[in-house]
Description:
Blueprint: H1 7-26, H2 34-39, H3 46-72, H4 77-82, H5 84-102, H6 109-115, H7 117-150, H8 154-202, H9 206-216, H10 234-251, H11 253-259, H12 265-299, H13 314-325, H14 330-366, H15 372-396, H16 403-415, H17 418-427, H18 433-452, H19 472-498
Helix pairs in contact: 1-8, 1-14, 3-7, 3-8, 3-12, 3-13, 3-14, 5-10, 5-12, 6-7, 6-17, 7-8, 7-13, 7-14, 7-15, 7-16, 8-9, 8-12, 8-14, 8-15, 9-12, 10-11, 10-19, 14-15, 16-19, 17-19, 18-19
Amino acid sequence: xxxxxxxxxxxxxxxxxxxxxxxxxxxxxxxxxxxxxxxxxxxxxxxxxxxxxxxxxxxxxxxxxxxxxxxxxxxxxxxxxxxxxxxxxxxxxxxxxxxxxxxxxxxxxxxxxxxxxxxxxxxxxxxxxxxxxxxxxxxxxxxxxxxxxxxxxxxxxxxxxxxxxxxxxxxxxxxxxxxxxxxxxxxxxxxxxxxxxxxxxxxxxxxxxxxxxxxxxxxxxxxxxxxxxxxxxxxxxxxxxxxxxxxxxxxxxxxxxxxxxxxxxxxxxxxxxxxxxxxxxxxxxxxxxxxxxxxxxxxxxxxxxxxxxxxxxxxxxxxxxxxxxxxxxxxxxxxxxxxxxxxxxxxxxxxxxxxxxxxxxxxxxxxxxxxxxxxxxxxxxxxxxxxxxxxxxxxxxxxxxxxxxxxxxxxxxxxxxxxxxxxxxxxxxxxxxxxxxxxxxxxxxxxxxxxxxxxxxxxxxxxxxxxxxxxxxxxxxxxxxxxxxxxxxxxxxxxxxxx
Length: 499
């Protein structure tokens, strides 16, 4: 079958992009103030915000990397999904009430109130680094599919996609982001369901055939439950998921900024629960696609090129299936779904980092009194600049072999200590700025060690980090709390004695 986009596919993609750009232009007037651009002036319904949060969760990392993980290995990524409800409960009880009552837009305002300006800067910079890595990875994953379909270079696809998303985000602000996400999530789920139908139809025995082949190869396993933190066991994924999802709901600007876009606190709570619970069956859907792809190519090995007959096939296997097995027109719909998955995360990240640049740096250190007209011009300029940086990050990731592993590791490096700092301030009233600063320094040092002390030359192996790279965020958080809690408790104890 022809693996290139035909006219019908191009028409579908063209119509989709025109619709997205039109939506951005439609919301331009409603985003003409800083409040409108950053939080939609708090006027959005909770269900729409919930779909937008879900779109941020899914992205093209889930769309391509989850099938790739299931194809190459097993369903251990589903353990990560199971940690979402506890994180949503923490958001309901602590995070949303705190942000709706004491914080305006920046998630890191609370850290400043608790520990000083340095803590706000640390949190903001960590988020910015993580966002760049995420945007770059998502753009790279998009290029995998479009390269298979068009033959265009990865670099040209990343450039075109990055610039296109940047333009509509800087035009329509957060309201355009959220309503575009609503459409994009619907397209994404529809495309994934169609892929399942096609796979079930092409594997002898349908679903039972896929289950039989997958079970025989251990594809439905959640990984080993042996408590070994050096290997990618289920315990490692569980620990990572707990820390990462607490970070998402507690200090990630993508989520915190959305809490402020709803009309009421109750609607913000509903949006979080909708996204957390909906992601569980969605992650199952994409993992099932990976297992179904494994069964399909086990039955039809002649359809798998030699280049994809190895461990590196994972992230590329779904794009290959789309390129070679989908009929014209419908192939364009699924590519549009992939683009939707990518854009729903990129646009959110760009809006958030531009908001933080304005609030946490420009207005904090240079022009606190900047008026609305100046602020909105800067927000659009910052969106453009961050979009270009994110596109450059995408170009740098072309050589990445495993998107899911790389994304998890970069997330740990970027935000491993931030949720620890937040929890230290929230749960331990005796913690002071000096305690927090020492704890952050320890966390940064441990994260650097866990990141770089690997595969060392002979004679230095005693310095290597013994834990799996997925645990970078976990060890960073544990180190911060381990250093910060004892002096905080002592301070509280001495304060009670003095009173």
